[in-house]
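One such given next:

>
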Amino acid sequence: MLPAAASGADEGSLLVADIGGTNARFALASARDGRISVAPPTIYRTADFPALEVALGRFLDEAGRPRIAGVAACAAGPVEGRGAAAHIAMTNCPWDVTAGTLSQVTGAAKPQLMNDFAALALAIPGLETSELSPVGPARVPVAGEPVGLIGAGTGLGIASLVFGGGREIAVPGEGGHADLAAGDDREAAVIAHLRGRFGHVSAERVLSGPGLVTLYGALASLSGKETDPALTPSGIAERARRGTCDIASETVRLFCGWLGAVAGDLALTIGARGGIYIGGGIVPGWLAGGPGLFSEDVFRARFEAKGRFNAWLSRIPVHVIRREDAALLGLARAARNA
């Protein structure tokens, strides 16, 4: 399908790109009357193109070569360098993702290149209430205070959003690789089991798609049961939803609890009185499939279980981001403000 032209293209379109290891999503966006509209993205397989500039050129050709007023792109991984020298070294994609390439192909003077969770964080102020699902009782965020973002998918992404001088500043991090802590004896046994296998046990080791499989295997081993080597994250989720597998149900329950605990740590670390938001592919996907997987009660209990700061955390709102193209919205907001 050809990319839909963004409204207001005569004033210049915003070009946004979310580059993953398997697929890259390109879209045009427009900003009018303080609102941003993002057209449905065109999705290319990265393996079908030798380089970013080739895929980007194809997209622009199919879009009719609109005038580009701003461009922003994101990819998984830290951004190295600044300005035109900014680049992201992707471990699962051969493309050379650089700000210089974005500028060269589009002619944009100030290309924005960022981590994928930085892009998602920048989307948060532009999300509608209908694009969010509250976790637990409704709470009111404190305007201007830091916002935290956490999301489990291929890995565990973490970022924050801070405000100052009339600007929104996304601060990506690698908190998914911080140590995983136990909240009870069962979790301690899981961590001990995983430490014997991996050495260091990070939060991402269990709070990710591969982590679900790893967690299931650890629980099965601790319970003296066989592990299905062909089991996938979606297979575990389906067994848990149907209630046909005790190990799968415990896997999902521990996942929800650990995610809540790590999110609570994030809230304490950055003082996230502006709220915590959950992105990534797993939790939004579970919610989209209906009830029975993501336990708000388990998440919220562990989120708030921080001793003397229990009451403080109980006042922090938590939401799941339901908008599928939220990262593209964040990129469009960055391109508009560049």
